[in-house]
Amino acid sequence: MSNRPFRFVHAADLHLEEVPRGVAHVPTHLTDLFLQSPYRAAERVFDAACSEHADFLVISGDLLDAARTGPRGPLFLVEQCEKLAARGIPVYWAGGLVDPPEAWPPSVRLPDNVVFFPVGRPEEVIFNRQSEPVVRLLGASRTQGRRLRPNEYAAEPGGLFTIAVTHGGADPESLKRREIGYWALGGRHQRQTLFSGPEAAHYPGTPQGRSPSDTGQFGCTLVEVDPRRTIRLTPITTHVFRWHAEQVDVGQSDTRKDLETILRQRIELLGQAHPAVDSMISWTVSGSGRLLTAIRRGGLADELVEMLRKEYGFGQPALWSLTLEAEAAICVPPPWFEQETVRGDFLRMIRDWREKPRAEIDLTEYLPECYLAGWLSAAATVSDEQELKRILAEAAMLGVDLLTPEGPES
Amino acid sequence: MRITGLRVDGFGVFRDLEIGGLSEGLNVFYGPNEAGKTTLMQFVRSVFYGFSPERRRYLAAVDGERAGGTLGILAAEGRVDVVRRANRGEPAVGDPLTVNYPDGTRQGESALKAILGSIDEHLFNHVFCVGLRELQELGTLTDPQAAAMLYQMSSGLGSISLIDVVRSLEEARNRILDAGGGACEISRLLEQRNRLRAEIEQIGRISHDFGRLSGEQARVERDLAMLEEEARRLRHEVRLAEIAATVQPLWLQRDSAQRQLAACGPVESIPEDAMHRLEAIGDRLARRREYLSRWKAAWSRLCHEARALKVNETLERLAPRIEALREQEGWLSTLATRSAELKTEIEELEARFALQRRQFGLSEGGANQLSGLSTSAFQALRRPARAMKRARAAVEEAQKALAEEEERALSLAEQVEKDLKAWNADDLQTALKRQGEAVSQLRRRVQIDQRLEQMVEHQGQLEAQTHRLIDNQVMPTWVMLSMGGTFIAGSMLLLTLAIYSRGGFSYWGWPLAILWIVGLVAIVSTKAVWERASARRLTACRRQAAMLEAQVKDIRREREHLDRNLPPGEGPIQQRLRVAERELAELEAFVGRDAQRLAAQSSAESAAERLERAKQAASDAHKRWRQALASIGLPADLAPTQVRDLLSRNEEMADLRRRLEHRYEELKQRTREREALTRRIADLLAEAGLAAPPDDPAAGLRLLRRALAEQEARQKRLVELRGKARRLRRKRKRVDKSVRQLKSYRRRLLRAAGAADEKQLRGQMARLAEVNGLRNRLLGVQQQIEAAIGGYSPSEAIAEALQGQSAETLRSRREVLAEKLAGTEKALRQAAEQRGRFAEQLRLLSDDRGPAARQLEMNTIERQLADALHRWRVRAVACRTLADLRVAYERDRQPETLQEASDYLQRMTGGRYSRVWTPLDEDALYVDDHEGNPRSVEILSHGTREQLFICLRLALAAAFARRGTVMPLILDDVLVNFDVDRARAAAAVMRDFAALGHQVLLFTCHEHIQKIFKALKTPVNTLPAYAAPRRLEAARVESAPRKKTRTRPKRPKRVPTPAVEEPEPQPALEWEWEAEEPEEMPAAGLVEEPPTVEEPEIIELGEEDEAPLFETSVKSEERRFYFDDENERPDETQEAEPDDLWEDTGRDQPGDPDDETPAEHGEGEGEESEEEGSEDNWEEVDDEEESEDRWDDEPDEDAEEDTEERTWRRSLRRRRHDDWDDRYEDEYDELVEEPVDEENWWAGDSLSDGRRDEAYGENGDLGDGGAEAA
After folding, report:
1. How far is A165 from chain B (nearest CA, A)?
2. CA spacing 20 to 30 A to B479: which of A250, A251, B514, B987?
3. pTM of the predicted structure, to 2 decimals
4. Which regions of A95-199 does DSSP assign to beta strands (E)?
5. Would the CB atoms of B869 and A379 count as touching at under 8 Å?
6. Per-residue pLDDT tens for B363-375?
7. Who among B210, B845, B878 is closest to A395 (CB)?
8. Best CA proximity match to B915, nearest among B894, B936, B896, B930
9. How many CB pairs under 8 A join A and B?
């Protein structure tokens, strides 16, 4: 069997139904961008399949939740698939958690170039070029509550290059043992390659970040397989705007003017580095000094964010500052912990709390009775270690601010 | 930690104030107002915590460099000094602080923080260092405020109330999520979220409508597809009928042309330009043959010229050596010039050296010997020189003393003689005796007068007393009457009793009778005694009067006798006595001057003896000096100044000598080098067979150079010819190759055409032209048919449609089909319109962004909710922590402090108040009286509140001490508002508090408080009184002199800085006997520092002799000299004599082994020559590297040639200048560069062989693709 080179675009987790989250206030001029971002990013995936002259497009689950998108999602998908059909590019789609085959509205008919893998055992599809088989695809949509079973996927010894299309996670070693040429996986929003070499297993990530924590590039992956079955993965950026988490250090002697200068420099650098897309920036100020105290106490942070939004938030591209917060860390001089003062005792209690293993905070006593039976009751108990440490750090600094008339000096 | 002392360099009213000897317990300082008590307290605060803006006002009148001071403290690390200076320039920089440890190490703020531990400034100012203002500030507060302040004092919170903090946190928390269930941020957000959820669920129903519309649209789509298919089929049939009718005539013409072409049979494929190419190859071959004939002629000329050139091989072999010598040509002339210069310089140096030698009277050998003297030899002169200096100084001093004593004795003798003349006495003792007797007589005379006057007065008194005694012999009348009356009254009473009693005296009668008798006896006896005593006193008085009269007479006789013996004089006796006494005093003073005269004479004699001894000692010292000079070989008549000059110029002479030796050595070296060069040149000339002048190496060198240049010219030409020959060979090879290539092309051309020769090729070309004409005709018809069809249908379908059909039949069929098509298209339009309506409705549904917008809004609400919840969690955790902390404070820390405060308060108030306490859940402070009744602090009296707050501070200080933080307690006038009893009680409490190991520094300006402490046997230190700031300077100046009684005169203290940094005063670097000439000292590197240090005022406190706070000191009167260069400062640890000449100047001495020595010179020269050699080596290496690089660039050279020759030839080749035959070169270039494309030759200019084969096919026929490619 001769090996013929081929290339395809691998995408996953398009989540057309999910609009960006984690933003407390969306400005009017960015509302349309936020609402359109899942569709525009998904559209870029389909456009990439055309522009890159891909042989086919592989979608590894979580394309859309039709119940939440309304008619817009399915119609959009049909339109994009028809666009590929016009260029003779087939689409191989394995459903994920939100898009099982049964969730597709029966009134919307997918074009013929779309192969929707069923739920259950993997189904085999052969991709032909000029009536010659080029690659073998094994795919299955994900069943609710069922994990990925690598044993159900088997390569064809000495035969065609095999691509496994599915959604979910599994042990990389177990995937590697199956000797599948390429595992087209979905279910992780961050781009990740489990392993690569003769075989590869890859999550392309979601085409568009949806929360401030989704920093970096998002998109799909162009997979190229040469006659020697060497796999080459090339990321294709599809996001329509980026999330940035910027950290700024301030020192003891820094003034507000200094901080403003730093912020301006950083945001201008961001604009120069990403001139084609809008940016949503979350600022974290770390370091020490009175400036940090002023930011933590509020007021100054709002003024700085307002200044940044006014100067950079309405340009092209828009550099919109979402938040400006002080770093959640206990930044006080170490001797304060040892002082025989209320502040010292307060800091020591916080420190003891932080260092206590498997600590848990139960704040139910401060809840009103009407919320004791609701979800707030669960929210009043903090057991997550990272969240607990963050809360304790902020509580420590709040206490230091209140117990120090002039604020912490460092 | 405790304070052992302090030194204020400049702070407030204080300058250079030092207080030491502070005890571990209670230290009371008394000083009037403006004495600086509060200033001292602020000074302590400033040293510990810096000069805050509030405390900087104390620095206003202080010089910048002196602002600040030192605090001596005894900490766990030992005794350390904390020095803080005020930074007057930039407050932001901070005030420099130094913590000096006993071992000399210095640290900064961190060390002080470690010493202070957890005590921050606020805590220190409100608990440990309290002034009246802080006390009153607390005392005027209400009880909740007092309780809060108590928390503050125990927690160091400053102006923040813990209660307020907790309350504000609770309010902030409740604003986010109200614990009472009221309106709050989270509840508002929850409402918004619920509303959005409902809206999103409502929007979900859109999907149902979408399904219905989609179904309808699918049905319409299916109908539309069927109609479109029908219409498409009909359109195809109509079009096919139209095409068949159009192409029917052309179809017949194509059939005819195909038949003719088939009749012509197969034809070989030959390129059209084959003949043209064959002719071009023939032309090119002819041009190359002509070129080869000209090449042979040029080659023969080149060989002839090369054979004519001859090369001297010996000279060529010697060329490198000659080249090397050429480089020495400049050096040869330099050697000659340098030798002449050296000779001139040697003469000058010898003349200067002889002049120096003559100046010091040294022979040549002596001068050489002087150069060999070592430092130790010169040091041997130091002691006799110093002895001679001292002896001379002693002589001068003795002479001066003798002169002074003689002058004094003479002056006194003259004065004594003059005074004796004035007294008219030859003998001072006689005159003194006479005047003494006169004074004594006059004094006796005055005494007699006084005695006589007293006796006369006494005599009068005795007479008056006699008269009074005589009068007193008769009893006074009132006494007599009283006694008689008493007698009569008694008799009457006794008689009455006797009369009226029956039968005798009654019960009262006898006692009265006895009383009467006793009274009578007493009266009689009293009268008798009275009269007898009066008589006796009268007798005694008369006897005294007689005796006094006798004495008066004796004294008057004595006075008369004195009057007769008195020296003559006028005036009253008293005046005469004063004159005589004054004269006697003058005489006595005169006796002192005479004694001085005698003493002066004796001193003059002693001075003369000392002068003689000093002269003798000077003579001995001079002898030893001469012996010392002789011992080291110097002339004995040299004076110390000359030796010093000799020393100072010895280096110069040694330098002269060294230079002279160096010049001699260099001259020898240069001479040797020149001779060596001369020998090398002569050897080369002989070897090359050249004749040259015998003693002129330069001429020989020039001759060699010229011969070598001629040889180089021949070599250069030979190399050029070789290069040309190589190029000719290369060109010949390329032309031959080109000829072979052209012949090969011609053969391939004929073989491809299938012809044996050129004639056969022409015949085949003519037949091929006929076949091509038929093909073109067939192709034109075919193109017309295809244009008519337009690619609409395959030719087979057209042929089928034309099969057996006439033109008429075809027309009627087309009309029928057109009618059917019109009907179908109408139905199709109606279906499309219906589909458009459905599509529009679906588009509206699909464009609805309502769900996404709601979802986005929901996300923002979720985020706000998460933020609010996070903030609520943070505040709740902070609340929880502070609440726990507050409970811990109330439970653990507060009772301990308050219990102790209660004890102190009970003692201070004499038991009137027994307890201080605060409720656990209230912000109130209460005091229980002796009956246990609680009282709020605000209703206490002013003094009681201050007592309470002093007690609280004592308790807090004790509490901190128990936890390991021991700090001194500094109280400034805190007892000022107490009455005597309260002050006494407070003093006792403080004394006992201090006795427990707490250091207390208490300042007061009230004398009664001072006395209270003194009564408690507590030593009280008195601060110096200072005037107002305007008078401060004067007061400071007045307090500076040492004669002040409280000033320690014996040892001035060293100013901490910069004197701490300064070295000990350095010994003066001078000749001892020439100290009067400081400008001649070797002080070039010295700086004289004026004495700017003021004498500090030192107050000795207490009887305990503490170790001095500052160890280093300098006398302000000293003139100190410091080295500019820190490295030149002599080591303080070395024990050097203060006026050690040699040690200080040793480094500059000529014989010092540390200085330049001949060995070092040799070594230096060696290093220099080695460096030069190294540089030469490097140059050689560079040349070699460069040669190798060039060698690598020319791999074609013969391996037999040595490196130098190759280098030389390459340098010539770089300047290639071919003058052989430019025209020949141009023609060659034209031939060689003529384009002969081996690859594309056969296929013309655009096709390779492979593509050509593909285009023409294996049989040479032109296929479709091949024709297009061609």
Report:
1. 29
2. B514
3. 0.44
4. 114-117, 123-129, 132-139, 161-165, 182-184, 192-195
5. yes
6. 666 666 666 666 6
7. B878
8. B930
9. 183
